[in-house]
Amino acid sequence: MLPAAPACSFASDNAAGASPEVIAALVAANDGPALAYGDDPWTRRAIDQVRDLVGAPADVLFCWGGTGANIVGLATMLAPWQSVLTVDSAHIVVDECGGPARFTGSTITPVANDEGKLRPAALEPFLHWQGVEHHPQPRVVSISQVTEMGTVYSTDEIAELAEVCHRHDLLLHVDGARIANALVATGSTLAEMVTATGVDVFTFGFTKNGAVFGEAVVHLRPELADHARYVRKQAGQLVSKSRFAAAQLSALLDGDRWLANAAHANAMAQLLAAEAATIPGVEVVRPPQANAVLVRLPWDRLDDLQAWSFFWPWDPADSMARWMTSFATTPDDVATFTAGVRQILAG
Amino acid sequence: MLPAAPACSFASDNAAGASPEVIAALVAANDGPALAYGDDPWTRRAIDQVRDLVGAPADVLFCWGGTGANIVGLATMLAPWQSVLTVDSAHIVVDECGGPARFTGSTITPVANDEGKLRPAALEPFLHWQGVEHHPQPRVVSISQVTEMGTVYSTDEIAELAEVCHRHDLLLHVDGARIANALVATGSTLAEMVTATGVDVFTFGFTKNGAVFGEAVVHLRPELADHARYVRKQAGQLVSKSRFAAAQLSALLDGDRWLANAAHANAMAQLLAAEAATIPGVEVVRPPQANAVLVRLPWDRLDDLQAWSFFWPWDPADSMARWMTSFATTPDDVATFTAGVRQILAG
Amino acid sequence: MLPAAPACSFASDNAAGASPEVIAALVAANDGPALAYGDDPWTRRAIDQVRDLVGAPADVLFCWGGTGANIVGLATMLAPWQSVLTVDSAHIVVDECGGPARFTGSTITPVANDEGKLRPAALEPFLHWQGVEHHPQPRVVSISQVTEMGTVYSTDEIAELAEVCHRHDLLLHVDGARIANALVATGSTLAEMVTATGVDVFTFGFTKNGAVFGEAVVHLRPELADHARYVRKQAGQLVSKSRFAAAQLSALLDGDRWLANAAHANAMAQLLAAEAATIPGVEVVRPPQANAVLVRLPWDRLDDLQAWSFFWPWDPADSMARWMTSFATTPDDVATFTAGVRQILAG
Amino acid sequence: MLPAAPACSFASDNAAGASPEVIAALVAANDGPALAYGDDPWTRRAIDQVRDLVGAPADVLFCWGGTGANIVGLATMLAPWQSVLTVDSAHIVVDECGGPARFTGSTITPVANDEGKLRPAALEPFLHWQGVEHHPQPRVVSISQVTEMGTVYSTDEIAELAEVCHRHDLLLHVDGARIANALVATGSTLAEMVTATGVDVFTFGFTKNGAVFGEAVVHLRPELADHARYVRKQAGQLVSKSRFAAAQLSALLDGDRWLANAAHANAMAQLLAAEAATIPGVEVVRPPQANAVLVRLPWDRLDDLQAWSFFWPWDPADSMARWMTSFATTPDDVATFTAGVRQILAG
Asked: For chain D, what is the mean pLDDT?
């Protein structure tokens, strides 16, 4: 008989609830009235915390969710006749139902990914489009940190991309839905990863780090954010009771809870990968760098596995699935999950 | 010397925090893992509650905020060559930075409002546009309940609009950001107001009723919602940890907390209007029907008043401003606010 | 028995064919190969002619048609969170099936027209929207010259609008589909009407003046046109064999054929109005200023009239229809048409 | 010393003027007035001719140009949350400045081309996106006939694609800017190529075949065209004096002038390829199938070659350029051009 599925799904880091500190912060923030739309002390404090972390007078805009934050960030950087160069595995290409393309009107040009990463050489074929009226005009390069393949850019890799971008009048955007996991994986500070490297705009994700909701769009070149408030409002991403978004971020930043949460998730991925590697029929695609474990599985057993404990196929053509850990994953969850997978595949 | 401004701003019902029941529900919902994107028991329960209230097998989609919910509702009803007929004071015209127009690509045609309301006669001039390729094709009529002028449609008025709409192959959309306040004001049930009248799609707002965040888009003709999940995702309005939105709505619906909250807000508006009417220089535009009090003020004193306790001008050409009450407004807040206004205008 | 309907329809100035000079120019321009997309001597010559006429180093872009030219002109001036203020009778509001709104993503805000004209006072209510993130941001004022009600702005009226616009950081756009008729009506030169007054961008229409096709978008502040070539291409308005558009415009400008064509059309409108005023049941709304005659008719006879010789209703609520003359209208056409109308109304 | 460059550019088939029959038809069509927007006998006749050719009661819409026709065709087939699968070399990806993406709001998903063609296997990875709200929903497959690499789909290849599409609830769109060249190349009739194979919508291009301007969007499943007139108008593609577009198409179809023009262009490409193959340093990439010759060139000499007689680079990474022939190319042009290239490369 199969064991009970683990309480904690490995389908997504969104399947976790919220960090206890976050819930406490929501309770505390419900302290009488406050002006709406960001004109409140919670919002001001969280913005200051982000500025301290990036070490720059950045523009910080709270948004509801990750797709919205990508839409807002990209829409401030682009005119409709311009284009975004990104990898074919990018969240903005695969997982946002075409939201950024629809809202911006701009072309999203996917190029082949290298283990989820965009390499500078992949930009080459599009550079000669610049200045020719027939072609969409390349203007933004967008990368994800952590990538959708679970890999992590080094700060050197980001700096190199930023340098290539700026040399060709391109801007660098980072979808940082899991940026905390990347910081822990690389041992970098946020300032080292985004400010020193030359990133122009990034999404500072905290939903997957343990919030109920909320992401921030951070413009490291504030002049790009001149009109960003209008874009955010128009995109339906202005948080009316802003204090509740800001208080969550503060709760995660205070005492470096965000880094502890990310470190835990990353460690659970290591544990999961180690255990998974011992299951006959399971191949761990590469050692996990952050909190995603990509595995090759006997694809004819996928339905049984999903029925027991749901997770997402990642590349059916390559029999590849993705297992995610989070701040809330426990060693017991890992043990229960891998035991079930082992038993089903042996069955 | 001026008194301290009231703790509770009269600028917006969004300036209130959250109802205590809502906060308790957030705490309770943080109970271990749950699948993301709505596949969880909290979401299923809240959807069932809404279906019970409307008395129909409606399609219910949780969204982040009011602008987003309007975008999602309208975008499911419209092709880009079609148009929305609405009043020039509508939230989708005035207060959403053009979000619905940008996202749908459709034309939003504002017509003159009658105390905030759309009258059937105002649709006339656009009906002969139907079928002529040169003109945007009228397809949706959108009204706000409560209106932006603080007035409330009777169920008869809504039923008449719905009848006119359907006779002309138009759909009726209701922006119900404050629908609870309208129910209390008219003594109607939700089923009477939206289902029996023939509304096609409405926003079921609960942020202004006392939630931290969250609105639902309700399709009363579910066949219109066939593609609504894609629209929601594309619009950046899919709540990843859906249980936290759903749990809030349930907390408000349980024991009719939502109606009690609305009734309180409406009563505070009555109190505010009565007191305001005694202040020399202040003219209450009309007896409040819900939780908005529109007043005419000596416009040269506006800056002083706003500096003391911020509120929004509503129609500068008519020296009109808007004061909002909420579930959290207290009689003391009303007393403090009106005393300050009286003193400033006397000064 | 009814007379035969006139050969020349009074429905639209587009019902005329092309001026003989235009056809001759098309024949002449088919002279061997020429590079596509505007890199040819015909295009260069026509651009120089327009620059001479406006007396400024304007940017001149040929487009296919009037809707396309309005889309291109407006799209170069607007970001999606900005808005266009225009009258509710404007071609971009009524007669382009929502094209400019869809393509720009921007809000088009119609205000009440005064005999087809936009008055500076109508801008007032929207100026305090500037700088507030909730509202679409007014950026462009668009007027039509000749207006859709057949009236003509004086150069003083345009100069006043331009002054108000620039004082409030707004740009002035002119839909000049019938600008030649306006020049003749006012006795102004093009430089006096658009350059001296301070217009920022205008459509220089020549289809209705006697071309087979073609309009030019003229940026009088060339810095606004930096990206205009991309906009035109993206809008599907780049004329591949550009020489054939340019040659037509040159044929109309050479020897002031365009002004002669417009003068003839205007004169025919005078004749038509004079004759129509004598028909029992027909009321000429106002003395025609250009080539449109607006008339009030016994509305129950509209079908009979249209069946005999088609024309467009203009304001059914006011029993108003529009009769257009063109460069090709003859006094005989006027006589035949008015005789038929007289007979039908008497019948 | 270099010879004079050929009169006829090999940069584009748009560099040719118009077929003499087309010019004669424009002269003849300028025969008095005609109602605008397609309600005229020229338009009716041309539509009937297209219906005869496809052997089906197709919906036929005249548009101005190729980008516009692609925009109109695709926009009638797509909702914004849906996607188009096409090759990375497609005109709608590379050469329309993002117009179809901007206007439709839909995702355009480029896949790797196989000598310019889309292979059914390339659709695989996107089929499991159907029905999952996170992903753009594949709805249309778009191919170009002739492809941008100069290759031609056989009718069997098109039929196979159509079968795969329809099995997966996808529609097949063909950008037929050079469809006449493909018909000649394959010896097929239009009915065999688009109707018998199961194409849903195609662009019937005639600008490159010898018109001054004009393309037709043909819906072979007329129910898809229900709203197409609104789309065309909104896209700025409604030809006001429609007769002049229609008369050109008729002139080309009468006596099969269009096929003769295409046959001549194809023959000139054969001649060009044969001659080019003898030039040291020039490699003809593959035997031309239609009117494009792709060549690999010593890339360091590109500037000299372009300065002498302009043509477009096609794939700089592969040192590949494109030479186009047209109905107007002469054997002398080919001789002059190849002699110049030979001399420059030898120099």
From this structure: 96
* B1 pLDDT above the threshold of 80: no
Inform me whether the pLDDT recorded for B44 exceeds 90.
yes
CB contact under 8 A, A64 and B64: yes
Which residues, other chains included, contact D84 with Cβ-Cβ below 8 Å and sequence gap of 6+? D74, D78, D92, D100, D106, D107, D108, D109, D139, D140, D141, D142, D173
Q: Which chains touch A (3 or more CB pairs under 8 A)?
A: B, C, D
Instruction: Report in angstroms the alpha-carbon separations of B136 from B108, B131, B132, B160, C315.
Output: 9, 9, 8, 24, 16
| B331-346 vs B257-276: helix crossing angle, rounded to 10 | 30
Closest CA to A293 of A333, A259, A256: A333
Q: What pLDDT is stored for residue B347 in this prediction?
A: 83
Task: State yes or no: pLDDT of D34 exceeds 90.
Answer: no
Using the structure block, give the residue that is written with the tokens 């394959």: D186
Which residues is C114 bridged to in the sheet? C117
Q: Is the pLDDT of residue C228 over 90?
A: yes
Cβ pair D13, D208 in contact under 8 A: yes
Contacts of C259 (CB under 8 A, 6+ apart): C180, C183, C184
**Direct distance between the N- and C-terminal alpha carbons of chain D, in angstroms, rounded to an integer:** 10
For C70-83, write each residue's pLDDT tens digit: 999 999 999 999 99
| Cα D91 from Cα D142, distance rounded (Å) | 10
Q: Are strands D215-219 and D171-176 parallel, antiparallel or unpaired?
A: unpaired
CA Rg value for chain D: 20
Does position C262 have pLDDT exceeding 90, yes or no? yes
Residue (of A107, C61, C70, C237) closest to D97 by Cα position: A107
Q: What angle do CA B84, B90, B94 make, to 5 degrees?
A: 105
- Kindly state the helix (H) or strand (E) to which residue B342 belongs, with its residue range: helix B331-346
Chains that touch D (3 or more CB pairs under 8 A): A, B, C
> In D238-295, which residue ranges form alpha helices assigned H by DSSP?
242-253, 257-276
Q: How far is CA B247 from the centre of its chain?
A: 20
State the nearest Cα–Cα gap between A155 and chain D, in angstroms: 29
Residue C226, both tokens? 């930096």
Mean pLDDT of D16-28: 96
pLDDT score, position B57: 95
- Our measurement of the distance from residue B221's CA atom to the centroid of its chain's CA atoms, rounded to an integer in Å, reads 21
- Residue A329's nearest CA partner among A275, A256, A284 is A275
- Which residue is it, tokens 């049984």? A304
Q: Chain B interface residues facing chain D, Cβ-Cβ under 8 Å?
A: 37, 75, 79-81, 105, 133-134, 137, 227, 229-234, 238
Q: What is the CB-side half-sphere exposure of residue D322 using CA atoms within 13 A? A: 17
What average pLDDT does this structure show over D172-179?
98
Residue of D nearest to C93 (CA): D234
β pairing state of B320-324 and B292-296? antiparallel
Between A254-263, C212-221, D26-35, the lowest mean confidence (pLDDT) is in D26-35
Please report the ipTM that was assigned to this predicted complex: 0.96
Q: Find the CB nearest D26 among C16, C23, C32.
A: C23
Instruction: Please give the span between the terminal C-alpha atoms of chain A, in angstroms, as a whole number.
Output: 10
Tens digits of residue pLDDT in D247-267: 999 999 999 999 999 999 999
Mean pLDDT of chain C: 96
Look at the pTM and tell me if it is higher than 0.95. Answer: yes
Q: In a mutagenesis test of the A interface, which of B8, B9, B12, B14 is the best target, namely the one with the most A β-carbons within 10 Å?
A: B14
Of the partner residues C102, C125, C135, the one whose CB lies closest to the CB of residue B80: C102
pLDDT of B166 reads 98
- In this complex, which of D98, D110, D124 lies closest to A317 when CB atoms are compared? D124
Chain D: residue whose CA lies nearest to B134: D233
Helix (H) or strand (E) run with residue D185 in it: helix D179-186
